[in-house]
Design a protein that fits this description.
The protein is mostly helical and 64 residues long. It contains three helices and no strands. The protein has one domain (4-62). It is 72% helix and 0% strand. The longest helix has 29 residues, at 34-62. The termini are far apart.
């Protein structure tokens, strides 16, 4: 069963309000199990790479 912080993170992603992710208190991250931390790390890397791809497409279109 996912921890409270991991559930809030998933809800944040689904709702599109990821700014709320940064308002999580530090102690709530201590509740996150190792598997949840790995999931959060993978999702963060995926989001970062997706943003980089969108940025590259944007610059390519602007330079046309």
């Amino acid at each position: 069963m996912a921890s409270k912080a991991a559930k809030r993170f998933a809800l944040c992603l689904r709702s599109g309000r990821c700014a709320n992710l940064f308002s999580l208190r530090a102690n709530s991250f201590q509740e996150v199990r190792n598997s949840d931390r790995a999931l959060i790390r993978q999702l963060t890397l995926f989001i970062g790479s997706s943003l980089a791809t969108v940025r590259q497409i944007h610059y390519s279109l602007v330079s046309l």
